[in-house]
Amino acid sequence: MTDSDTLILVNLKAYPCDPVEIAETCAAVADDTGARVAVAPQAAHLAAVADTGVETWAQHVSPVEHGSHTGSTLAEAVADAGATGTLINHSENRLKLADIDASLAAAERADLETCVCANNPAQSGAAAALGPDAVAVEPPELIGGDVSVASADPAIVEDSVAAVEAVDADVDLFCGAGVSTGEDVAAAGELGATGVLLASGVAKADDPEAVLRDLVSGV
Ligand SMILES: O=C[C@H](O)COP(=O)(O)O
């Protein structure tokens, strides 16, 4: 990748890491290099992460408005906490079609950038039809592994880029699963992705800063 707008989105999932420490590292690497690095922590950590100055995303927003929705993740509350974007329909938090649409509407109401996750090219095209800012294709069997989607299954990235482009050329295509090196980021870019979504490579690393500096070298 050569575009400094390329997004490196670090999803902390529910890993037992220090979200603020990783956020501070991501902010420092972004400042030093000009790369776009964002962190998606647990909802309860959004404000603390956003306070570091790093670009902050939610892992999910619920398909609801203000009202009687106990246990929901309200898009407006996520935005109030400092998030500027959100994942929707992550492989580990799948939604029904109507709920993806309603979560997108909620995110748009709160002025959050949106990335809908998908398993394969057909789902990527379907997700693009709902009008998110981006779709992230992630083969579930590669999530959490050591082999990047871009090398294990390059066709799934290329075909997803084409599927999204055919539906709405304004929607970006990110890819994820097993991304942990600058080489992986560069390979994703060569396949047409404009961002990567990753988790374990940073959240479980002994030295997250070294991993992040390597990742941004591929932008
Ligand atoms: O949200 C991130 C993706 O599920 C990828 O996770 P991973 O980098 O641990 O494979």
UniProtKB/TrEMBL annotation:
Record's InterPro entries? Aldolase_TIM, TIM_sf, Triosephosphate_isomerase, Triosephosphate_isomerase_arc
Question: Which pathway is this protein assigned to?
Answer: Carbohydrate degradation; glycolysis; D-glyceraldehyde 3-phosphate from glycerone phosphate: step 1/1; Carbohydrate biosynthesis; gluconeogenesis
Q: What is its main location?
A: cytoplasm
CDD domains from the xrefs?
Answer: TIM
Catalytic residues of the enzyme: H90 (electrophile), E138 (proton acceptor)
Keyword terms, alphabetized: Cytoplasm, Gluconeogenesis, Glycolysis, Isomerase
* Segment forming the signal sequence: none
Query: Catalysed reaction per UniProt?
Result: D-glyceraldehyde 3-phosphate = dihydroxyacetone phosphate
**SUPFAM superfamilies cross-referenced by the UniProt entry:** Triosephosphate isomerase (TIM)
Compartment annotation: Cytoplasm
List the EC numbers from the record: 5.3.1.1
The UniProt annotation places substrate binding at: N11, L12, K13, I143, G178, A199, S200
Which function does this protein serve? Involved in the gluconeogenesis. Catalyzes stereospecifically the conversion of dihydroxyacetone phosphate (DHAP) to D-glyceraldehyde-3-phosphate (G3P).
Q: Subunit structure, briefly?
A: Homotetramer; dimer of dimers.
UniProt-recorded name of the protein:
Triosephosphate isomerase
Q: What is the lineage of its organism?
A: Archaea, Methanobacteriati, Methanobacteriota, Stenosarchaea group, Halobacteria
